[in-house]
Amino acid sequence: VVQAVQRPGELMIQAPRAMHAGFSYGFNVGEASNFGTMGWLPHGLVTEREYSSAPASAVRSALFSHTRLVLTMLNHMNRVPEEGRAI
Questions:
Q1: Do residues 61 and 51 touch, judged by C-beta distance below 8 A?
Q2: Rounded to an integer, what is the distance from CA 64 to the centroid of its chain?
Q3: How crowded is residue 40: how many other Cβ atoms within 10 Å of its Cβ?
Q4: Which long-range CB contacts under 8 A does 59-66 form with residues at least 24 apart?
Q5: How far is it, in rounded angstroms, from Cα 35 to Cα 23?
Q6: Could you list the pLDDT tens digit for every one of the 87 residues in the chain?
Q7: Distance between CA 70 and CA 13 in Å, rounded?
Q8: Cα separation, 47 vs 45, whole angstroms
Q9: Long-range contacts formed by 63-71: CB under 8 A, 24+ apart
Q10: Contact, 37 vs 45, CB < 8 A?
């Protein structure tokens, strides 16, 4: 277990497949921004497979289809600059 305190103007970066939870003291305005680079795709595929192969009592549905994401990205690959295409 690791503890971190985020102060105004600071970013928190989470490793792929890491669990996290948050707690706020008092009044606050919270904001989250989730994104992934092309290098995230293999992690997403592993996680989607693990979710679908878990015992019935623990099955979690993915929030979105990893396959659909990859196919959509491939359909729009011509819009991505060459240097951003490498995984």
A1: yes
A2: 11
A3: 12
A4: 66/41
A5: 21
A6: 678 888 888 888 877 777 777 777 777 777 777 777 778 888 878 877 887 777 766 666 667 777 888 888 888 877 777 766 655
A7: 23
A8: 5
A9: 66/41, 69/41, 69/44, 70/41
A10: no
| DSSP-assigned letters across all residues of 5-57 | ---TT------TT--------SS----------GGGHHHHHHHHHHHHHS-GG
Residue 50: closest CA among 68, 70, 66, 38: 66
Q: Which two tokens stand for residue 64?
A: 């979105």
Structure tokens at 57: 């009592």
Extract the tokens encoding 74. Answer: 């491939």
- Which amino acid would we find at residue 69? L
The total of other beta-carbon atoms located within 10 Å of residue 65's CB is 11
Query: Tokens representing 72?
Result: 């959509």
